Amino acid sequence: MAQPCPADPEESTPRHLTSAPDADAKPRKGRLHYRRLWLNRPGFHGRGHLLSEVHLDRNSDGVAIRAEFLLADCSRSVTIDFDMYENATAADRRNALRKARLLRESVNSFCDALEVAAAEYEADRAARRARRRPRRS
Question: Residues annotated as region Disordered (predicted)?
C-alpha cells in the first residue's frame, strides 16, 4: 500500500498537509470526521483548499452516512460525494468505499511521481548551473 506524501522537511509547520481538525470546527453530533486544509504554503497566491467531512446521522429510518470530499483551487472546485442513505445496499457501500480508496491510491501515486519529477528537475538545474560556471585555472 502506498504511503501518504511526507511533509516538506523545509517547512517547520506543514499546515498544508496537517490532518489536525480545523480549529474553527465546532463539535457536532454525528460528525466522525472534519478537515479543512489550505493547499498552498503561506505567501503563495491562491485559495486552494480541501474540505472533507463524514457525518453519521441516526433517525427513525435508520442510519445514514453523509460524506463528501471537496477540492478547490482558484475559482475551480470539485466535490465528490460518498453518501450512504438508509436504503443503501451492500453494493452501494462497497462502491462508496471503492471510490475513496481509488482516490487515496491515485493521490499517493501522483505524489510519488511528482517527487520523482521534482528531483529530476533539480538535478537538471544543478547540471546546467555547473556547465555555466567558468573554470578557474
Answer: 1-28
**37 with 14: CB under 8 angstroms?**
no
Q: What is the pLDDT of residues 15-41, one digit of tens each?
A: 444 444 554 555 578 999 999 999 999
- Give the C-alpha separation, 45 to 47, whole Å: 7
Q: What's the pTM?
A: 0.70
Side-by-side strand order, sheet with 49-59: 31-38, 49-59, 62-73, 76-81
- Going by C-alpha positions, the residue among 51, 54, 52 that lies closest to residue 32 is 54
Query: Would you say 6 and 28 are in contact if contact means Cβ atoms under 8 Å apart?
Result: no
User: How is residue 56 written as a grid cell?
Assistant: 453519521
d(C-alpha 27, C-alpha 137), whole Å? 69
Taking alpha carbons only, the member of 96, 114, 117 closest to residue 106 is: 114
Amino acid of residue 25: A
The predicted-structure confidence for 36-85, as pLDDT tens digits, reads as follows 999 999 888 888 999 999 999 998 888 999 999 999 998 899 999 999 99
